[in-house]
Structure formats: C-alpha cells, structure tokens
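Practice set, problem 2.
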Amino acid sequence: MGNQHNTEQSSMRKTTLKNERYRERSDNQNEMIDLDEIVEQWIWNMWNRTKTKSLSHYKREELLVKVNWKQVMFSQTKANFSGSPPVHLPKSQILFRTHFNNKTMMEQSYLFKTERFTRSTFKFTFTHCLQKSQKSAVIFCLPEEIVRFTGGIQREQYTDFGQDTIKEYNMRWSVNSQILVAPRTSTYAELNIDEEEFNGDFSFFIQFFGRITATVSTHESPNNYLKFIEGDIVEIIREILENDHRLNGLEIVSDHPSAVRYTMRGKCLFRYGIQQHVVLNQQSLDSSSSSSSLPTEKKVSSSSTIDHRSLRSQSSSVHNNIYQHIRDD
C-alpha cells in the first residue's frame, strides 16, 4: 500500500506539471490547447483509479499511452473574415522590360510577346487554436471579393488542424501585342502587374463529440497493452473544466448529442495580382532633338491567364452555425 501511495503521489505531481504547461499557454496573448495533453491527463487519472495490484509496480516513465481519435467527430462552421477592405499596393511590379530602337526613317512594327509569373500568397496564422496528434484539416472559404481576382485558385483552402499555414500559387501573365515605333525613335515597353493585399482576422467554431480510446503499454512492448481505457470526450472535457477554469475557451453545448465547442481565431495575410498593363515610353534618337519621355499606358486584361498549381504548404463577427465535417487523414 505504501508503494502504491508513493506512485500515486508521483503521478499527481507529473500531471500537475503537465497541466501547468497548457495553462501557461493560455495566459499569453496566443492560446494553444493541446487536446492530447488533456486526454492523457484524464487517462493517467483513470489508470491510478483502476489499476490492479499487478500493475501498480510500473513507473510512469516506463509506460506509453496511445490515444485514438477515430471515434471522435469534428466539425466546423464557415470561417468569418474581418478587417479593412483589400488595399491596392501603390507600386506596380515590373515583370518584363524590352527596348525597340527604330533608326530608320519609316514607322516600324515590333512584336511585344512574353509570359511571366507572379506568386500569390495566402497566409493563415492561428492565435487561438486546438491541436491534436491525429492529422485532420480545416477549411477556409476565401472571401468572394478576393476569389474573383484570383480566377482559377480554389475558393476552399485546406490547412492542417490548428497549424499555421502558408499557401503559394503561381499566377501566369502574358502579353502578345504589336508595338508601332515612330521613325528615329527608341521605345521601351514594360509589363506591369498591380497587386492587392488583405490583412485581417478570421474565426470559426470547432465542435466535437464521440468516444476516446487509449491503450497503456510499456516502451519495451508497445504492441502488447497492459490496459485499455475509453471514455466520452465530452465528459472528459467537462471533468477537466471543473478543475481548471483557465480553459474556459472550451465549452459544453447541449446539442443532440452534447458536444464540446471552441472558437478558433487567427490572423490572415493575402497578397495576389489583380490586373496587368503595358507601359510604353519613347524618346527621339536624334541628338539634335531635345530628349523627351512620352509615356502611354494600356490595359491588357484579355491576355492574362493563371496557373493555379500549389507550390508549397507550410497548415465578420457573426458566426454561421452550419457545421461541416472535418476531414481526417
């Protein structure tokens, strides 16, 4: 009995330390709640309550816990974006420049043809989030006013559950125009791209319910479990909340069935091209003439195309309460 009492005291000390870890995260401006840590705390409490005499000699560091989330259903509402409207960046990006020198006494026609790429970036940074070991994805539906300028890029953007994510796409721009150059004139042509940037906030509800299953085994024999433990995730969270009021971001909602709800929040930064235009500047080649620069500009929107292959994935204040199922990998 003395050994068992000492083991329980040791387990309680370690559980308290782990509890402090996710408490400290909540004290900062950003909040990350690790669901695995919460579940593991509950599992160790159950282990101490229910272990038999034959299991009481195992030390905590000898044991391995494997949590299975397969029977827990996660869903989310549509993400809401807030912030100032997209800002038109003041300086155009010059993708290509070329010169045409007409040294003859007759007007000449030149072909201005090129294809270039810019990179559209969509960055999602979580400030208040849940995390868990089992991989799954959340969905961001980009605002309509942004999608219309990024034709070809999917409105639904998937990120790893609670993971900061940067998604980048190639955007292709092309021009194929005839340029008329006056006699004894030098003309240079530029392909310029105008860009917009949206810097705002996002939020959406995560809701989940179901049963957690877990096995406790030794590190030496991880495939031979000593104990199988299962429980209702809603009741597990309810028990934790009764003892830790700092996790008040989690709440129990009395739906059918009851579920745990949490508001994911974060920052987003989108940057993307919106239009292309060609700028022409000309200057006399005659040294006797005074130098002049005569810029003209024309839109070339019909020849802009988009290549929306993903290059890299690093994962309003009123909520839409229609939930959609979150995919698990």
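Problem 2, part (b): a different protein.
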Amino acid sequence: MPLVTNVIDDKSPLILYDDTWLPGTAQYDTYAADYYLGTFTTNNVTDGLATFNFNGTGVWLYGANRPNHGSYIVQVDSATYTNLNGAGNNLFQQSLFNTSTLSQGMHSIKLTNTASGSLYVDIDMIVWQSQVGNTNDQLVTEKVQDTDSRFQYQEPAWDTSSSSINFALFNNGTGHITQTYDATVTFTFTVSEVVSLFGTSGPSNGPYSAQLDSGQTVQYNASTIYPTNYGVMIYYADNLGPGSHKLVLTNLPATSGQSLSIDYAQLWTIAKYFAIHSMCHSLC
C-alpha cells in the first residue's frame, strides 16, 4: 500500500495542548533557531498534557534534549511508555518517542510532563504515516489554491484584501480570511484518498470546526501567542475512498476579531482514479 508521510510543526492546531504549555521564541531562548522552523512549544508544569489524534500506522514526536529538561511519559491508545527523559546537552530535533507498528486506523498519542522542580519537555514537530489504497497503487498529488472554484465561500463574510494579515506570505500570494461568526467555507473535491488544508495560526486566529461529508464535526483552535504563522496544516483526513467529498469549515471565534484563514488544499488521489476523473472532466 502507498504510505503517506506528514509533518506538522508544533504550532499546528491539530496538536491539542492544555493551558500549561507556552510557545518558545527567540525572544526568550537563544537556541530557538535550532528547532524545526524556529519554533517549539514548551511545558515545565507537572502533568502538563499534549494530545495528537491521527489515522495511521506510525508516529514520531520530536523535541529537544536539554539540561533543564526532565522526565515524561507517552501514552498511545491504551499503552503507556515510561522511563522517558529529555535531559541532554542541547540536542535539537530529537525523537522523543516513536512507534511504527500500529495497525492502520485512528490512534491517540499523549505526552505528559512527569518531572518536578519546573523541569521542561517540549514539542518541536510531529511526523506520522498512514497507509492508503491497495498494494501497487500509486498516488498523484494536486495543490488546490484558495481561488479555485472548488472552494465556495459564504459571502460577504470572507475577505481577500484584509490589512490584518500579509497575503503576500500565503502560497501563491492569495488567501481568504473571515472574522464573521459562523461563516463557512465548503471545499468539494472528487476521488481523493487524502485531503489536507492549510491556513494560518497566530494571535488573531481562533476556534473553528471542520466536518467531512456527513461525519462528526471536530473543533480546533488556531489561536497561539506566536506571531502569525503561514502555511500551517489546519485539517487532515485520509483513506476517504473514491467519489465526491465535501469538507466544511466554520469560523467560531471565542472573542471579537478572531479569524479563520484559508490558504490552499493538498489532495492525494490513486492514479487510476485520477486518470478516469481527468478524462471525464475533459470529455463529459
């Protein structure tokens, strides 16, 4: 089966941190540039918890080994891994935990700081892998810009020229943003196995929900203390199967002025279905 590998930085809203975690920045840490993309999220509170839910067969948590780091535990579904420690001589982008022997399906990984005395643990990035399709299938990728007609924005709630964000830093220099409560964007796509959606996270972003087809509505929060981050994965799903799919995102700001931003989508489709869809699109 094709294996899809994904990487998300610590500032992605797909990672759920409790309120004891704080962003690490160059303003307060001279080693910040040694982290992936120059950012990390850190915790020095006993029992501080970070959670990541994913569909796949393997997952890797990355962080740093530093002198002021201590013990932590990792729980994958019902299995708990103890005797883990992040102490070290300033080594960065290190694997804090990994497993690649999971059965394909939904899993939850949780990292808990078990150290006392204000010792730290941090998260730099997360990598995970998922099997899609069948043996000998090949995947074709497609990037879909926010201006594509497959994105339908609830008008007039969405803006493409707001002064509150730098659209020049979006992929291809275009993006959509809304501060309107309950404003929706619908992304309709066909025959894809995998979909990921990219936008921003930062102090001006906020909570939002996502619903794929008739599935469960899931809530996320893109608000961070970091300056605005661009090209951040704000939604992901795989093993969708051939056919038409509909992804709906809804802005749910907790305070006035919080926004939801859309940059682009990435699709992965099994090659044989992509060829059939392309032929039909040309001839039908």
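Answer key, part (b): Residues 274-284 have pLDDT under 50 and may be disordered. Residues 103 and 206 are 34 Å apart (CA to CA).
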